[in-house]
Specification:
This protein has 260 residues and is an alpha/beta fold. The protein has 8 helices and 10 strands. The protein has one domain: Rossmann fold, CATH 3.40.50.1580. It has a 5-stranded mixed beta barrel with strand order 5-9-8-6-10. The two termini are 26 Å apart.
């Protein structure tokens, strides 16, 4: 009876032009940036959006499963807040932290997928990660380090590799892992390599990862004004980001299908 009532309520909301109440999701996904999950969102069917304070959750269907996706913004605090909201409103059985990552291991190449088997952070916290689900694509495993600022230069990457023996770096995953660990929710992480260990990111990329959309747009315009040649760098970054987003979308769709 409860299921029938919930279904009727959702149908009434849809008829009224509103998104129906969220279903309990099979899979919750947390990403930092919209560009990381643009191709994945395009693969969802029957999409509904739930706007709330600070975050909008996109709910849809993929491979016969209910998926709830939230774009958190960069950094651990944002990732933690978004994961809390996702768990409170959509109650997923699994949570995936996905997106771009920088290679610390010099053997990793751009667009490779890394599925961490351990997540660590600068505070010394360590989180084990579930084994790769059956049917997921062939990938590389390793240790993921979560930091609090963009790791821009090859020298910085080499130092983090030396200190933490990590293979890939990001700014969010340990926070998502911490929330899932506290709540007893099954957790996976996947990062697509956006820049290899020997590559320096343009200096102008740092302000583009901070603040609101209007702030980032202003930062890009200032960078172009101060160094017109940065347009070429920005265009290359955009192309690389699109390739990486497509790779992580393909991987995530295949992984969702294998989750029980």
């Amino acid at each position: 009876m409860a299921d029938r009532d919930a279904s009727a309520e959702r149908s009434a909301d849809t008829a009224a032009g509103k998104a129906p109440a969220p279903l309990a999701a099979d899979v919750g996904i947390v990403a930092a940036l919209a560009i990381e999950v643009g191709f994945l969102t395009d693969r969802l069917e029957h999409v509904r959006k739930y706007a709330g304070p600070g975050h909008t959750v996109v709910e849809g269907e993929c491979g016969g499963k209910i998926v709830a996706l939230v774009v958190a913004g960069p950094g651990r605090a944002a990732a933690r807040a978004a994961t809390d909201r996702l768990l409170a409103g959509h109650r997923p059985r699994w949570v995936l932290s996905i997106g771009f990552g920088g290679a610390l291991n010099p053997d990793l190449r751009r667009n490779q997928i890394v599925l961490p088997d351990e997540v660590v952070d600068l505070d010394g916290a360590r989180y084990a990660v579930e084994s790769r689900p059956p049917g997921s694509p062939s990938i590389v495993t390793g240790r993921l380090l979560t930091v609090d600022a963009i790791v821009r230069t090859a020298a910085e990457k080499a130092e983090l590799r030396r200190r933490f023996d990590a293979d890939v770096v990001d700014m969010e995953t340990s926070a998502v892992a911490a929330v899932c660990n506290e709540r007893g929710v099954r957790f996976l992480a996947a990062r697509v390599i956006s820049d290899d260990a020997g590559h320096d990111l343009p200096r102008e990329v740092v302000p583009l990862m901070k603040g609101s959309n209007s702030y980032r747009a202003g930062a890009a315009l200032r960078a172009l004004w101060n160094r017109p040649s940065s347009l070429k760098d920005f265009w290359a970054l955009h192309e690389h980001a699109q390739e990486a987003a497509d790779r992580i979308a393909q991987f995530t769709v295949a992984t969702i299908a294998g989750l029980a």
